[in-house]
Amino acid sequence: MSVNKRNNRLINEKSPYLLQHAYNPVNWYSWCDEAFEKAKNEDKPIFLSIGYSTCHWCHVMERESFEDEEIADILNENFISIKVDREERPDIDSVYMDVCQKLTGSGGWPLSIFMTPRQRPFYAGTYFPKESMYQRVGLKDILNNIIRLWSTNKQELINKSNEIVEHVNLTNEETEVNIDQTTIDLAIHELMENFDLRYGGFNEPPKFPTPHNLFFLFKRYIAYHDEHALNMCTKTLDGMYKGGMYDHIGGGFSRYSTDREWLVPHFEKMLYDNALLIMAYTQGYMYTQEEHYKNIVEDIINYLTRDMLDDNGGFYSAEDADSEGEEGKFYVFTKEEIIDVLGRDKGERFCRIYNITEEGNFENKNILNLIDKDLSSLSENAELIKECKQKIFDYRNKRIRPHKDDKILTSWNGLIIAALANAGRYLDNNQYIQYAIKAADFIIDKLMKPDGGLYIRYRDGQSMNEGILNDYAFMIWGLIQLYESTFNISYLKTAITLNEYMINNFWDNKSGGFYLNSIESEKLILRPKEIYDGAIPSGNSVAAYCLVKLSRLTGDLSYEEKANKIIKVFSNKIKSYPRYYTFLLLVIMENTKSGKDIVICGNKDDLEIKLFIKEINKHFNSYFTILMNDGSEEIIEFNSNMKDKIKINDKNTVYICENNTCKAPITNLVEAKNKLLEDNSSVFDSI
After folding, report:
1. What is the C-alpha R_g of the chain?
2. Which residues contact 352 (CB under 8 A, 6 or more apart)?
3. H or E stretch including 327?
4. Residue 169: strand, helix, or coil
5. Which superkingdom (predicted)?
């Protein structure tokens, strides 16, 4: 950045993305009343540009257009230009991304919207080059055409914008149909049809991890003993790890692969991807006992806690794909570099293992990968690999790192809290749980309001923006997992508080389902309900899952009724394209094939109880819901069913319940474990 450049209004923002544009010659506004009033007063159309700080194509469009004086002059003279960080205002992004997808059939970032001063869009797209080329229209031509139309045929653009808003509203209306076992079977069939038999994963490139598909398939395996479902999971987990989408030196996964083999990634690393992939690889280990899945979980967590953890316990959002203006520069190597770092003998051996060649596989350099390698054979060279990786890690760390987006987002921290608590519980690692506790305590302290509301983000001492559905649903998920990993009642109580706020402020009392934004939020042109499971599960899907879990933990059946209503509200979409709603289908299986509820009466710190829980986690995985009843008033306060679940003869006592009916209490915990084993032979015996 030149010291001679003048800053614009964005210099006063906290968002890393907005600050990246603070020295553009474009007279940017943030999303604010001042911008809309100016557009109305000066009768100018609005150019809305939405992106995020680690977005590669956002950087490209900035270099080509927003740093260009010619484009800036056109925008400043004829438009009111607004910049939005999609991660800080996901509600705005959702509304206008929906418009873009409905108008163009696709979406992505940067998102470029042209709209009236009343915020109604009439033209949409994503990345535009400055000049038109190769049958792709350029931003300059688009701007000039809109200037001409606005001056000669403004009313037509206004009419078109009204029609667009009406069309989007109509296409979002819901009808209810019956969802049954055939819908789940159809989702499995569609996933199998789109499954890559050689490398794993689904659909044509670019290939995204979509861990929720794996959660659904793992649940299918457990509920129905479906070996095909398990095979799709393990093939995908192995394929992603072997490819270059995984950082074999520093740990963690990039956002997606540009090719079928998972070789060439889009190098940015997102907190949400890595959180969900921790869950996926944890499940991989739970259901197969393959040690390399456990090691991958450890590597991802090491990366996140080393590079993405704030001193106060919250986790940062993302790392950029670019460094020094080049995509992937931080992550790739020439063979000569590897030999120089490791020496000839060890270097050649390491290069053979990780497919490093003189020619390279990415712009004459190498993305390390294990594609087509037998993972079981790596143990023969384990010490060599460990030593060489550390030396390359130290060498790489001297490079200029990619930009890190250091804002702390409530929703994504909810996901990592759930992932860490889950991994700590099932991999028997208390340190993971401690990381989850510290992150949860940070979010509760800094981003939760006294009335139970949430803010979206924290950065530089400031909490901002009304939380959306994802903030509540994902944070509740994290707190439920944390309760089941610690049995600290305060986390369950906070989950219930957030859940009540979510119902009171986001629930559609007329039709059912949760809106994306609350009744307290800024009113936009649409109030969407999201259900599609894209890169991450939708807020409604996760909310439904949490409602089912809370119903079982509290005994409040109204929560389960709301979960069922969510499924009914979106049933037509689910039945039409079931593989796009796999997390919600998982909720259906959770509700119908959910295993048992176990009530343990005693002290959670009692050694006998600790060992019993450890055995449950080892043998039964995520098949049960566990509630700890220490006899306190707090427990009875939120679950009145605990009144008659008491210790027998002052002994630790276990109640095994199913379908709201409990069997006779068991005071011998070894007997209780054996009873659970007896009742749940089949799939668990093969693990």
Report:
1. 26
2. none
3. strand 326-327
4. helix
5. Bacteria
Q: How many CA atoms lie within 13 A of 131 on its CB side?
A: 3
- The angle at the Cα of 199, spanning 197 to 253, to the nearest 5 degrees, equals 140
Rounded-to-integer distance, Cα 153 and Cα 389, Å: 63
What are the structure tokens assigned to 290, written together?
Answer: 């393959």
From the options 3.40.50.1240, 3.40.47.10, 3.40.30.10, 3.40.50.2020, give the CATH code of 9-171.
Answer: 3.40.30.10
Query: 302 vs 85, 156, 271, 424, CA distance in Å?
Result: 28, 56, 13, 13
Place of tokens 């919250």: 314
Give strand pairing partners of 51: 85
Residues 362 and 332 sit within 8 Å (Cβ to Cβ): yes
Helix, strand and coil content of the chain, in percent to the nearest 5, comes to 55, 15, 35
Cα separation, 639 vs 655, in Å, equals 15
Where exactly are the structural domains of the chain? 9-171, 181-322+405-592, 331-398, 597-686
**Residue 484, number of CB atoms within 10 A of its CB:** 23
Tokens 């010659």 belong to residue: 25
Helix (H, G, I), strand (E, B) or coil at 262: coil
Residue-wise pLDDT for 455-475, tens only, equals 999 999 999 999 999 999 999
Q: How far is CA 235 from the centre of its chain?
A: 21
Please count the other Cβ atoms lying within 10 Å of the Cβ belonging to residue 591.
Answer: 18
At the second CATH level, the architecture of 181-322+405-592 is: Alpha/alpha barrel (1.50)
Q: Are 14 and 460 in contact (CB under 8 A)?
A: yes
Q: What does the chain come to in residues?
A: 687
Given the DSSP bridges, would you call strands 462-466 and 597-601 parallel, antiparallel or unpaired?
A: unpaired
Cα of first residue to Cα of last residue in the chain, in angstroms, is 57
Find, among 491, 476, 636, 621, the residue nearest to 554 by Cα. 636
Tokens of 579: 């593989």
Residue 559 phi, psi (nearest 5): -65, -45
302-342 pLDDT, tens digit per residue, is 999 999 999 999 999 999 999 998 999 999 999 999 999 99
pTM over 0.90? The answer is yes
- Maximal CA-CA distance, the chain: 88
Weakly modelled stretches of the chain, pLDDT under 70? 1-4, 593-595, 620-623, 679-687
Q: Quick one: tokens of 637?
A: 């306060």
Q: How far apart are CA 211 and CA 54, in angstroms?
A: 21
| C-alpha closest to that of 562 among 519, 516, 624, 500 | 500
- Per-residue pLDDT at 622: 58
How does DSSP assign 8-52, residue by residue?
Answer: -GGGG---HHHHHTTTSSS-EEESSHHHHHHHHHHT--EEEEEE-
Same fold, 181-322+405-592 and 597-686: no
By C-alpha distance, which of 299, 319, 333, 513 is closest to 407?
319
The C-alpha angle with vertex 250 and arms to 247 and 253, in degrees rounded to 5, equals 35
> What tokens were used for 608?
């006998």
Q: Residue 493 is encoded by which pair of tokens?
A: 């109580």
| Cβ-contact 581, 567 below 8 angstroms | no
**206 upstream amide cis, omega within 30 of 0:** yes
CB of 529 within 8 A of CB of 511? no
CA dist 285 and 426 (Å) reads: 9
| Structural element, H or E, at residue 290 | none
In CATH terms, 597-686 corresponds, of 3.40.50.2300, 2.60.40.1080, 1.10.150.320, 3.40.30.10, to 3.40.30.10
Residue 155: both structure tokens together:
């009313």
Where residue 521 falls (left for φ over 0; alpha for ψ -120 to 50; beta otherwise) is beta
